[in-house]
Amino acid sequence: MKIEVSRRKFLQGSVALTVLGGSTIAVPNLFSNEEEKAKPKLNTKTGTGEAEEIATLCEMCVNKCAAIARVENGRVTKLDPNPLFPKSKNMLCPRGNAGIQALYDPDRLKYPMIRNGEKGSGEFKRVTWDEAHAYITEKTLKILDEEKDNRSSFLFCAGEGMAEHTFRTFYSAFGSSNWLNHASICLMTVAAGFSTTLGSYPQADLDNAEYVIMAGANRAEAIVTPDTMDLFKRTQRRGAKLICVDPRFTNTAAKADKWLAIKPGTDLAFVLALTHVVLTEELYNKQYVEDHFNGFEEYSDLVISNKYTPEWAAEITGLRADDITEIAREFMAHAPRSIYYPGRRSTFAQNDFQLRRAMAIFQGLSGGIDTKGGLIFGDKIPIKGHAGLQPIYDRAQARASGKKDELVTGEEGYDDCAVSTPAGSWIGWRNRYLEDKMDYNVRGMFIYKHNPVLNMPNSAKTIEMLKKMELVVAIDTMPSDTVMYADVVLPEAHYLERTDPVKTFGGLEPSIAQRNKVVEPMYETKPVMEILKGLTSKLSKPMFEITKKYDEVVQEEVSERGEASVFAEFDISQPFQETQEALNEHAVHHYHGAAEILKEKGVYYPNMDKYFKQTSVNEYEYYPENKRAYQVNGGKPKTPSGKVECNPANLAKVGVDSMPMWKDEYNYEVPKGKFRLLTGRHAQFTQSGTSNNAMLRDLMIENYIWINKRVAAKRGIEFGDMIEVSSRVGKTELKAYPTEKIAPDQVFFIHGFGEESEELTWAYKNGGNDNAVIEDVIEPVYGAAAMHETNVEIRKV
Ligand code: SF4
Questions:
Q1: Can you list the domains of the chain with their CATH numbers?
Q2: Less Cβ crowding at N or C end of the chain, within 10 Å?
């Protein structure tokens, strides 16, 4: 990393930390009943005696619904929904309820451990926290010394979670440039496609929509969160029409007014044809286009001159041209209360970025942007950051992005992506690392709450990567497949055992919510904040000694100013000295009484005491209609120009098509005798994170492979038969589910099963691991993993 400026401490937040100690601020009473107020706070009686209720947030999936935990004799006995949170609207799904099982799962990681056998063997010895820290320190110092203080010789990677931010603070202070998170197997191309076109990744106002196209988003089955309930309880009940576009007949398809069984990876052709109808029949909102579009003429010319007609799309997608025409007309007839649902899923096909761009432009043609019943940007309540530390290490190299001219293109199926982001391309980075195409050595890895062995395509390569790393430190709650390849395991406290960073949630009804500690951490587990406090206290000074050894500027500064003064700017333990509770108080100290309300109620937003109302048995109002953030940008996109960007010049500059268009290579083709593998989620499971949860197993014991019934009959496959699924990268086994709900050239199974860790009583070898067979195909713009580009063979075993 080249530096041009003198050394100094970077304050990432706004100001140095100010803690509101011993605040006696009056808390507005949210429940108007004075008798209630006089009672002990949130205490209830149960059959077993006194019980305390503590407001917290769920972490069984990414949605972070608000919950009330009932605690009796120090144990959590029940989790209930917290009605105060607008985002979760008094809902706690089955997974949320199973949070208790996760807390009391006997397989949890309990103590710090150091590897005691081959990597992957699962042989560890129990050690003290001090011993674990000493081991990590010794190995880290050795690597940094040998790499002459190149902090980027360590990779940091994390899964999604409220404490991910805390771990990222460690990464920043450590000074590496190599960070990978789950984005490239999650929302990366969705968010990028919409942001490039509309300036932001919008939300859908399903509550007020009249017409919804849901393509590749299986909301009735894959992720049952409160907005799912909105869709099926309120939106449809009001008479809104739902169009489901999905290769499989899913539960969402079953609930839809119309199901279109599209060929995988051809949604872009569908959207281009919808656009063709709308342009040629002049159904679009002409005033909106005139006021709020850039590049409309060029895009219109492209769509019309390429003859992206419904008949053209019918050939590619397998849909009927009449259906496409009808949907385009209906969508515009209901505009602006029509939604082409943006989706909340990983990348399926290589054209995913351009698909999202085409969807955003199509939505823009309806005028349904930043408006009630359409796509909305919502509002956010600002909270304060806190002092961070980002020392500048002269010798830390820039992100290991590989030497582009040495990369293999084409047949191997991956290459550098056009746009490099801080989240990185997980499998792109991994593959370059394995092929020694980095421009320097990366030798160590810190992993937080992340299971890339199960979650990244081509599990065998991820295992190879973990084996090749000289030091792998895993911070987690469960002995996942990835943890089995760690050198040091640091057990994190469960989410009900810790207070996490307070978070602001944007949307139509913005609010702030806080995960409060419900019970004390069990065994020897600790919240990540405390784990990092202990670790950095050990690491900090010796790491500074290495910097001093190799960095002449530091040597000069030490001789001028004295060691203590210079070290203060490099002391990586600093960000972890305050408690999480104190940091949270600081984050909201500008809202009168908010810190106390968050501790007690878990949720805060200005005027909550006035606005929050129960309107029926299980219906609540959070904001009055005229205070909801339907429109925050005057009905305009949030791009710098304030316009829908159809043809932005900056894409062409990085070699990306500036307008969405179809290419022959996108055509859906499956060689004879093979099947296109589709994968997806189930609402009862969150990737591999809940695979060992015994309560959830009651709802779905294992994953089954969907095989078309006629194909299964021809091959003599019956329900429950064991099937081997294989691709060019690996194989897995699971039971058969012959069904009419999938096309003859496709198979499907749910992600997150088939772990190999023997420490997971219920998840071990339970079902099949999709990523053992999904090939590492990279979406070329942002480097996301394209999950539906693998053809497989199947065989009864
Ligand atoms: S949707 Fe379910 S699992 Fe996800 S946060 Fe909400 S309650 Fe928890």
A1: 52-103 (2.20.25.90), 113-177+396-414+421-433+441-453+461-492+527-584 (3.40.50.740), 188-378+633-653 (3.40.228.10), 681-796 (2.40.40.20)
A2: C
